[in-house]
Design brief:
heterodimer; A: about 270 residues; alpha+beta; outer membrane lipoprotein receptor (LolB), chain A; 13-stranded antiparallel beta sheet; 4 helices; B: about 400 residues; mainly beta; Porin; 18-stranded antiparallel β-barrel; 4-stranded mixed beta sheet; 1 helix; about 5% helix
Amino acid sequence: MLNKKSLAGLFSIALLTLSTNSSVMASTPEQQGLALSKQSKLVDTGWVDNRADMKMYLRNAHGQESLRELKIKTLELQDDGDKSLTTFKKPRDVKGTAFLSFSHAVDADDQWLYLPALKRVKRISSKNKSGPFMGSEFAFEDLSSFELEKYTYKYIGDELINGLDSYVIEQTPVDENSGYTRRVVWLDKQAYRTQKIDFYDRKNSLLKTLSYHGYQQYMGQFWRADKMNMVNHQNGKSTELLWKNYQFKTGLKDKDFNKNALKGAR
Amino acid sequence: MAFQWSSLSAVLLLTSVAMANEFEVSANVGFEGRYFFEQGAYAEQFSHMQSSVFAEAELYYDWNDGSDSLVFVPFYRLDNQDSQRTHADIRELSYVHVADNWELRLGIRKEFWGVTEFQHLVDVINQTDAVEDIDGEDKLGQPMINLSIVKDWGITDLYLLPGFRERSFAGKKGRLRGPLVVDTGSVSYESSAQQKHVDYALRWSHSLGDFDLGSYWFHGTNREPMLTVSSTSSTLTPYYQQMDQIGVDYQATLGSWLWKLEGLYRDTKLDDFFASQAGLEYTFVGFFDTFTDLGLLLEYAWDSRGQASESSTGANLQNDLFLGARIALNDAQSSELLLGLRADLEHNSQSLFIEANRRLADNYKIGLDIRLLQSSYQYDQVYYLNEDDHLQVSIERYF
């Protein structure tokens, strides 16, 4: 049974698709790239908040594996980057450590770390965008929310990927602290889902490839991948993210993202 | 068949209960070995080696989707040399209720205030568990009623602190102490209520853009005792005064720079003074084209009481400069190293410390600490620790 709300949602998506398609046809590769990326952001707007559990498997070239377990709460903001609260479950020596982030499109993010052994909340510098997140192949910037202002765009062409006809777009980071000269993103034409991203390092050599698997649709609208696999081509390491218990519109508010919430995070 | 169905529904019922409530147990146990390079300077001290084992557990239970929770954290250390270092403590035993714009926290808890790295000047709620380490970072659990109110203009915390915890000190055989042992059996207080004096504190903290601000007022028993030589001249006796203290902690986070300031004004019956710890930290991200971060730290400690002398007890950190380097490899083992150097700019007194640790497999952590202390100024407390340079190794297992 389709209710009024989801119908309205479908209708607005159809409208957006129409409007961007017309602009895609009539513009330069840069404008097309921007329009397509804008579209991918638009179809993923309006989820309000979400909660999810994440497992992260770090694997090195010798096949050794180690596990991280996290819990993430995110609040969507319309006029700014998202707010998120990440709680660490594993490895056990960092259990209870929590990370609060207010992301911004252009300005530096605001970030706080809670260290449970000392009960200390530390404001930390967010300059470290290119550094590895918990020793994984994901950099901090790979996990922060996608905001249009973070890149400039160029539409490269179409390609079939994972059996889906996709747009290929080059995105160049605006921030000089980014670890990348550019990323190449594959967005499927069906639902503007990211299927793959190639990351090029500061010397413009291929550094990493991120692939998305097992997309599920939530609330009849929002697509999330169950599995994301990041392969580093230069050091032979990889990191696999497995997402569980995705929940949307759970009633999270601003007050769930302050220092008290950080100290009490579980 | 009917039996199977009923057991299945029982399982489902239990599962749904488990989803609404969460019970978690975690623990860590560890071994720590210390080697002192020199013989003890004072008669009954042990010579070189000190070993201890410790354990800490956390039992956590919450209900109402986490709005109500209970936590219990017992701690125990068994030391083979110093009987005073063999001790148990309830680090936490508390109930927390979280509402929309306030939280109520009842019971034994730990609360940290401050921003600087080399001295925790304004951190005043909990008593220091000084037998654990000399860096002042280990704390004893403090009974409290804490109401925390969240407003647009910041977080206000009200504390009522019934019951005072006495500071722990190294025993007769222990190292890292002066020539006279502190007799924790003969403690005296300024307040007639003694240990039962109810302290209180009010704190406001807020984040405004790049700035994190905190200020507080504390009224109650000074956590730092005055140590006076007993009538028999064989021991030191702790005397706990009453104090009023105003403190501030500010941090500005500007790109790769962290600017930090802690300051306090303390008023007791015998004296009143100002003190501050201020400095900065700069981080080089991805140092030398690796994933290594290098943080450089500089801090300065000042105290209006000045240095200790024949006529005055003064302050230990009254005109001291701290330099530090923090190296984080950002590898899968979270390998980290912190190097710190302190130099008194008024008299000849320095210390150097190295703290390094990394994870081993998934559930172990190993650590190496080195501390070198030197002073030729006889009124300086570090002067008493001239023979106490040591190295410490630790291994912890997490469950």
